[in-house]
Each structure stands twice: as C-alpha cells, then as structure tokens.
C-alpha cells in the first residue's frame, strides 16, 4: 500500500453546533468549506450551476443524484462519507428507487474528523474495496460535513490495482439540485476517461464500435428513447451513441468518441465542458413533437455536415408519423407544470403540440444556452418559463391559472388535490415515459386525459369530507379545536432559548 501523509482536517469548527448538517446554515457551511480549502470546488459549482432568482429550489438531497448515477453503473462501487442520518436517508431512497447494490459508508465522529483519522479510514476503505475482479471504478463522495471540514479526497490515489478512484464533493450547500449532482459525477468520470483516452488506447464498447458516426445523448431518458432517436438518425447515415450518464465505464470512451453531443438535458455543464475540451460539437434541445424534431434533425445534420437531401429524407420519414400521432391523441385542457428533472421544457412542448393549454412551466434546473431554443419556443406560445422555480412560484402559478391538471413535485400535487385539482407527479408519471419522435408524440395523452377526467371524483371526495376541518382543526373531534397562536409563539421562544443555551455552552 502506498504511504500517503494523513492530513489533519483543516476546519474543526465544522463539527460545532448541531452537527453542521443540512439545517445548520448554508452560509456557515460554505464559510467553513472555504476556510478548509474547498474554495476552488465551490467556485466551480457556482459557475456551473448558477443560482437565482431562487437560491436553492426545495428538492431532495442533491447527493442522491450522483449516488444514483454511480449505483446504475456496472462494476462500480460507491462509498459515502457523511453524517449517519444523511447516509441512511440517501441509501433508503436509492433502494426505494430500485438500487440493488451495496452502498459503502465510512462513519466518523468528532475525534476521527478533527484528527484526520476520517481520511485514513476513507483511504483504507478504498484500498479494501479496490478489487479489479469486481470493479472498474470506485466513487467516494463527501457529503456536507466532510466537505465543510475539508476532507481532501483529491489526495487519494487515482487508481489502485487498476481500479479507478473518483472522489467528489457533493454538499447540499454547493450543488443546488440532485439533477445537477448527476452532472458532477458524470463530468468527473468524463474528465478521467478523456485523460485516459489521450494517453493511449482504451477499451472498445462492449457491443463493438459503431460503423456509423454517432451522436452521444446527454441526460437520462426513457430506455426506448435512444432506440427511437437511432431510427430518426438512420436516414442521415448516423447512429445514436451512448447515453451519458453511462451504465458502464467503457461507454465513456464511446461517448467522447462521438463528434456531436446532443444536450437533451441542457444543464449538464461539467459534462459539456469535457466534451468541448475534446473538440466535440454540442447541439441543444431534443426531437420532441413536430417542431422540435424538425429543428433537431436539421441541427444534428448540419453539425455533422450531412447533405440537405439526407436531412430532408430524415424529416419526411419521421414528421408525418409524429403529426399523425399527435392528432390521434389530443389533449384538451389547461395545464401548469413544474419539476426538478430538467426535462420540463421538453414535456411542455409536447403537451402544447398535443393541444394542451400550458400557461406555466417551472423547472428547478438553471437556464443555460442549451435550453434557449425550448424556452424561446414556449415563450412564443405565451408560456411563462421559470428557471430555478421555487415551490411558492409553482403554487402561485397554479392558483393564478386554475388548471384542469397540475403536473408537479410532491408538495405541488398535494396542494392541488386539496384544491380538488387533478394532479400528476412529474418524476414517476411523466418523465418515466417516452418523449422523443413518433413514440413520444401522444404518449402523454393517455395519462394526462385520464387524470383530467378525475375532476368529478375530486369534487365528490371534497363534498364527502366537507366539515372535517383543515389546518389546526383537521380531523374528527368531539368539539372543534380552538386555535392557539400564543402557544406556538411560546414554544418558538422556548426553542430559541434552548438554541442560545447551546451556543453559550459551546463558548465555554
């Protein structure tokens, strides 16, 4: 085993207070991380994932995104370093979503963190896991506290026994959403793979190298969509390449080998930086609906310098089928939509071409130049597009536009149902469907129309439960509870007093 000097944690203040976890104050954590030498990482995140107008959308822990990417890759081990409660929540959620893989965990306490023993434990865990018979890569992730404490993953060896070591910091106070955390890991892997490819021959894709020029697809998508895109590209003599994030390390080389990258999800900034460093051409938007498919085929064909006749051939093969599918499954109704997957603009385009009256699209993802084409198309249709949308903005849009259907995050759906507005959860019911080409056209209509048809059921339920109360009076009571705001104020002052006592004890 290579001897590595064990660094003391630079910032023991990171463990003071209430564990300095998610609820300990973003500004304090950022200041602690910068004092511990993480300024370069935080500055890069701030440039890649710009905030505002909302500081950080209400969403799940960002680290879930990178965790999920690692767990989906073959021959890839994942190790977390963070507070036990955070690791419990992340592993619970990942297995809830079907992960069948073990998540490694390096625990710590005040002593192991402050003395640098945590880094030693991480290094030992990585060495113990690095079995080339089992793994191509190990991903070790610093969550909030280790990042704020300056645990230096960059000092880990780059490879052990041929197993690649990828260390990333994914703090909730530095990465706004779980969608962007996927890009953090995908970008780190692409950078590693690009360096390998520049140094010499690398492994070919498991299914062999495509005989046709390929288009790499950037962003997670429904499994059938890459096949549909491949059929769209075929008349131009092109083929669909790997989807990034990839499912296997060697696919990273194939992704980098494509001359053209389709930024289906436009917020993968770190990944795009690696593709551009490799000299690749980036094309935004996606082949959704009639207009979107026509423009995308044109842009991809031009990026590959395909002749106009082949581009026209591809359009003639796909566009009539898309128009027919859209006409066959119309959507009639007003819809507001919000989500945190990053594909909200694409779904909105498809809904509008299906006939829906879409007034508002909120996305937790930031605006980038690769989302401009979709934003401009939607705004030309009179849609308000809100990047970095907050829950309050999503709810205000629903109140203002009184939709027949609200598509959104869990709290949006919950509020909509309270208002007897039919609602669908974006992540599980909308983004888990094909969107591209003829298969995507009309795919939303069945679930959307069925949901809008449930309005009468909501009215019936509201009538049935009328009078049971809401808020502080919710439930069935022998007598209606009396609101006591003074009790809440008293308890609030009690909590503030306890917080001041803890602070005073820390100073002793």
Features:
single chain; 508 residues; alpha/beta; five-stranded mixed beta sheet; 22 helices; 14 strands; 47% helix; flat; Nase/OxRdtase_comp1; oxidoreductase; photosynthesis
What's the SSE blueprint?
Elements: H1 26-35, H2 39-48, H3 63-71, E1 76-81, H4 84-96, E2 103-105, H5 110-115, H6 117-129, E3 137-142, H7 144-148, E4 159-160, E5 163-169, H8 178-199, E6 214-218, H9 224-233, E7 239-244, H10 250-257, E8 260-262, H11 269-277, E9 281-283, H12 289-303, H13 308-328, E10 334-339, H14 344-353, E11 357-363, H15 372-380, E12 384-387, H16 391-401, E13 405-408, H17 410-418, E14 423-425, H18 426-430, H19 437-440, H20 445-452, H21 455-465, H22 485-506
Helix pairs in contact: 3-8, 8-10, 8-11, 12-13, 14-15, 16-17
Would you write up a description of this structure?
- Strand 1, helix 4 and strand 2 form a beta-alpha-beta unit.
- The chain is of the alpha/beta class and 508 residues long.
- It starts with 25 loop residues before the first helix and ends with a helix.
- Helix 3 packs across helix 8.
- The chain is built from 22 helices and 14 strands.
- The longest helix is centred in the middle third of the chain and has 22 residues.
- This is Chlorophyllide a reductase subunit Y.
- One of its GO terms (molecular function) is oxidoreductase activity, acting on iron-sulfur proteins as donors, NAD or NADP as acceptor.
- InterPro entries: BchY (IPR010245), LIPOR_BchN/ChlN (IPR050293), Nase/OxRdtase_comp1 (IPR000510), Protochlorophyllide_Rdtase (IPR016209).
- One of its GO terms (cellular component) is membrane.
